[in-house]
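Session log. Operator J.P. requested a structure for one protein chain; no other inputs attached. Running the standard single-chain path with C-alpha cell output.
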Amino acid sequence: MVIFEAVISRFGPEAVNLLLNDKDVKADDEAIHAVKAQSDTERVDKIRHWLQIYEVFQYIPGPQRSAIAAAVLCWADSRDISIRLTTEDALCKAHESLMNKCVEAYGKERDFKSLASKALWLCYPNDVPIFDSFAQRALWVFAKIDNDITPLSDNALIDLAPQLKNREYRQFVHIWKALYDLNKQSIDALEKHDYPYSVRVFDKILWIIGSPYYRYDSK
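Structure written below.
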C-alpha cells in the first residue's frame, strides 16, 4: 500500500512551485474569466489562445480552432453553474457532452479527450482533473500497488461507458477521484502560497511522478 501522504509531502511543494512559476498561470486566469464573462466580445479568441498554449490543436486548421473554442463557450453558457462536478458520474457525463460538442464543431470524429478535459477544467477549476499521459502513467502505477484503489473491470467500463471512446477517461477519472478524495485533506493542507486550485496541484504531483525520466528536476 502506498503511503500517499509521504508522496504529497515529497512532491507537493515542487508541484506548487512549478504551478506558481509557470508562464501560463496568467493565461489560466484569463481563460477562466473568459468562460464566465459572457459579455466579453473577445472571449472566443481568448479560449482559442489558451487551448493553443496547451497544445491540443495539432493539425486542426484555424477556422475549426475558432469553431471549437466557440463550441466550448456555448456549452459553458448553457450549463447550470450552480451544480458542481463532485462525483465520478457528473465528471464523466460533462466530459462526454463537451467532447461531443467539440466533435460536432470540428465536423468529423476525432479524439478530443484531452482537449475536452482541459476545457472542462476552465469551467470547473475546483473539480476537474486534466487528462494527461504523464498523470495517467502515475495513476496506473498507484492503482496496481494500492489496495484502496480498485480499477473498473472491463464489464463495469462497458456498462458505465457504452461508447469505446469514453472508457479511457472514465477509468482515468475513477482512479483519480478515488486517490484524490482519499488525500484531499493533505493536499489542501499544503502551503500553496495563494495558488487557488488543489486539483491542479494534485495533477501536477501526478505529472511529476509520471514524467518519463528517472529524476525530474524543476530547477
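Operator note: The two ends are 30 Å apart (CA to CA).
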